[in-house]
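TA notes, week 10

Several of you asked for a full example with nothing omitted. So below is the full record: structure tokens for the whole chain, then the designed sequence directly under it. When grading your own attempts, check the secondary structure regions first.
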């Protein structure tokens, strides 16, 4: 990884080392068990590809992206590479703004170290919770830092976080084989979405960059939000809020830094497309599940309960700060949208959603699927 050191507002190298140092390895398994788990996840990922394509009617043709089974530090390293790529324009502007201040260069060098530690703490927290992820903005050619084989020349890759999958299947007391396949179905759906719909990645990146281009956030404010989130990980913020008689869950999240009407418009569009993608993955996972995952009903019931209850007040406070509560709503609202449209128009009719950015649902249409049907498929209304 190229060192940015003090030239950036976040020392990404320090973020990685901090997260790696703080992150626990996960459930105890023998070396032979670990090899068997990795091999099984790879088999399930391969099988899921055909299951998802058959159910959805989406076909990526010759386009393919890597499937990588990683540990928690591997997930951290992969995501830092993506963060740096996506946030580079925003970081460059904030760096210029800080440099124009008296003593700005020195502040940047010191601040990047502090923020690097805090971002590392957040990554450590998240690395123990993510089961899998289609890393949309992964570099096209480099291999995963720390291993993973050569690059393919195609952007994007699927990550399956083995220790987290094992942890949750044990926590829920569900059949390991079924649960691993069920998770792979969800994540493979995301992979299929982006490989079968060529314009989707560029559209998402364009929206994100447009959102960041509108950002006029004071560096100190952004750093303070990261500090609040990092303190939530260690319990410092929750303790401080309790001493002051305030509810940590009521605090503003990082997403609340949205300031301009233009940003709100872009965020609404991003929220809609993320709801679509997450809801579609849940719909496919449950649609394919009964045929290939015998205990799918038990898994869904237990996993949904786990999503809703979370892990206590501290966990809920951090989810609020990072905007993760919005993601939980995206699963629910998006799945309802997909299910309703498929019931009304069939899978072929629903797949009109992938025609172009103009056929993506709006935020209002996610809540009112009939409006999308009337707009995109007027004959079916």
């Amino acid at each position: 990884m190229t060192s940015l050191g003090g030239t950036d507002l976040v020392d990404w190298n320090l973020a990685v080392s901090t997260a790696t140092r703080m992150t626990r390895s996960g459930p105890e398994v023998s070396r032979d068990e670990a090899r068997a788990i990795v091999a099984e996840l790879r088999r399930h990922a391969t099988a899921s590809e055909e299951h998802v394509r058959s159910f959805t009617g989406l076909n990526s043709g010759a386009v393919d992206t890597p499937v990588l089974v990683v540990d928690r530090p591997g997930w951290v390293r992969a995501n830092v590479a993506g963060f740096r790529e996506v946030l580079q324009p925003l970081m460059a502007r904030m760096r210029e703004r800080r440099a124009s201040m008296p003593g700005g260069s020195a502040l940047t060098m010191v601040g990047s170290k502090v923020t690097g530690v805090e971002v590392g703490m957040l990554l450590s927290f998240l690395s123990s919770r993510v089961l899998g992820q289609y890393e949309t903005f992964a570099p096209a050619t480099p291999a995963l830092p720390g291993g993973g084989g050569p690059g393919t020349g195609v952007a994007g890759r699927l990550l399956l976080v083995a220790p987290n999958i094992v942890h949750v299947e044990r926590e829920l007391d569900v059949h390991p084989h079924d649960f691993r396949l069920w998770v792979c179905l969800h994540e493979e759906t995301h992979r299929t979405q982006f490989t079968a719909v060529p314009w989707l990645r560029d559209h998402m990146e364009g929206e994100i960059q447009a959102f960041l281009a509108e950002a006029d956030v004071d560096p100190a404010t952004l750093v303070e939000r990261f500090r609040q989130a990092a303190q939530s990980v260690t319990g410092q913020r929750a303790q401080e809020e309790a001493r002051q008689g305030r509810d940590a869950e009521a605090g503003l999240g990082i997403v609340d830094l949205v300031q301009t009407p233009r940003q709100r418009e872009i965020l609404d569009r991003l929220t809609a497309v993320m709801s679509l993608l997450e809801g579609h993955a849940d719909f496919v996972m449950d649609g394919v599940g009964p045929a290939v995952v015998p205990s799918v009903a038990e898994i869904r019931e237990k996993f949904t309960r786990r999503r809703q209850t979370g892990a206590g007040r501290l966990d809920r406070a951090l989810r609020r700060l990072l905007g993760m509560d919005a993601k939980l709503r995206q699963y629910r609202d998006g799945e309802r949208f997909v299910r309703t449209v498929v019931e009304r128009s069939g899978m072929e009719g629903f797949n009109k959603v992938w025609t172009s950015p103009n056929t993506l649902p709006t935020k209002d249409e996610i809540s009112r699927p009939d409006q999308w049907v009337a707009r995109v498929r007027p004959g079916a209304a």
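The chain has 15 helices and three strands. Use that as a sanity check on your answer.
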